[in-house]
Amino acid sequence: MGMKSFINHGLKTGKRHNLDNVLSQQCKQDEIVYRVRLTAIVDVIRFFLKQGLAFHGHDDSISSNSRGNFLELVKWYCERNDEVNKAFNSKSHGNYQLTSPKIQKEIVNACATEERKIIVNEIKDKFFSILIDESRDCSIKEQMAVVLRYVDDVGEVIEQFVGVVHVTDTCASSLKSAIDTFWKK
Hints:
By secondary structure, this protein is of the alpha+beta class. It is built from six helices and three strands; from the N terminus they run αααααβββα. The chain has two domains: about 5-100, no CATH class; about 125-185, Nuclear Transport Factor 2, Chain: A, CATH 3.10.450.
């Protein structure tokens, strides 16, 4: 039987329909595993952000005894939650593990964007101030820290750190440009 007639025979006997169902079920299962993994990673990242903790150690490699705070907390989370453990131990390709520093940074940036939206919504049309402090980091790059100060609905003064921005220089026009770009994100 040739390939064309084999395919036609499979379509006539309902095997193709059965294959579609199997593939659909596998895709749904993969999506569930991915969501469990993503939720766990976001939980860990939120913990680090709330506590102001460093994500990485000096050696995040698999052979390291101390792989950095982030990977160690993910491991700890897996040991205490069977569903998360199954999700992380299921077959998945590199990026689907969601543990690479690049993906962590993207999730942190997404959290920061959402946090800024919440703060802007809370401020609405009230008065606020932006506090800027610039300095060089350890790699001799100029950066500025951005803090918002405003009064909430119950009259409490809130100071909220909203980010660090790398700048080319620290003249007033460069800092203003960096602030404008920062708030457009």
